[in-house]
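Hi C.,

You asked whether I'd gotten around to modeling the 374-residue construct. I have! Everything is below, sequence then structure, no commentary in between.
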Amino acid sequence: MYLHDSQPAREDLIRAQVRNDRLQLLFRQSFFSVFGSALAAVMLSWICWERLEQSMILWWLGLLGASTSLRLIMLVTYFRVPESVRTPERWETTYWVTLVLSAGIWGSGALALMQAGDMLIQTLVLLFTVGMSVSAVSCYSAYRSMTLASIALVLLPCSIWLLFQPQTAQQGMAVASLIFAGFVASATRKLGRAMERAFRLSREMEHAHRIAAHAAQTDELTGLQNRRAFFHRAEGVYETCKQAHLPLCALMLDIDHFKRINDGHGHQAGDDVLRQIGRVIRQSVRDADVSGRLGGEEFALLLANTPIDVARVIAERLRSAIADITCLHDEGVTASLGIAELNHLDQDLHGLLALADKALFRAKASGRNQTAVG
């Protein structure tokens, strides 16, 4: 169905696939983000341990540990659930909640460390928050809004606080960090657009490949598999049924007096007959069956796990459905069919089809518009 959707439907599908691709990339990159955030907090706490109030550091690390555990549970759950439920609608909001919580704790703790009044500590904390911002660019590159939110929650509180301090050095650090944040915001916009184009191009190329592969395997008029594709798939079904000793039947179908239709009513009428018979066959076969147009007005079906009596019923239903077709020309359309069953002896696919073809010849010789069993 994907290959035959309208342009708006294809666009909606590609847009949904791109969104899903972004989500998958986000979660794949998130383990680094989660562990990096926790490691940075531990390193900063270790550096500042002897210069700051230790109870405050422990509280900060405890809160960060809780938020880190929550994010790890989310990541593990995401990768353990089936792919069918890894949808943006289900996971983007959850990710946003854990990101805002973790970044908010990080930024609040960093601001608390800043207010200790130690210039060296302030410089170290600002460097770590800048490093966290750089990490956010790489980890949340598929989502510009998440990158900006993370930077705003981690870097801006410290930078704005420094901006209003009395010392020139503090104000200079604040201005530098804000300029850096501005450059990052601009870079994330370009990076986000580039990734969006890359995801879209990948999906469009995949779609084009599917169309080309489908066109190479499909008969244009009937929508059935062409001769080459039919035999390629039929060989696999034949071998499976033969090795498993399952019943298998081949059905050959030929349109009666098709040349007379073409000669008397034109090729447009003949093409209309072929299209409608193709539709009837597509509606009649199961997913496990193989059907195709072998050429001209000749069609073949391979009915997997189907005994001969059931195959005959299917053939008769096909014959009746074809007789009910309303065509561009006034004359009706009929078809003759031949059936043969796999005998599990020294036989191959072509031998089975040859038996069905012989049965088809008998059906035509006996007056057409009937089914013969080989």
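If it helps when you're writing up: The mean pLDDT is 89.

Thanks,
B.
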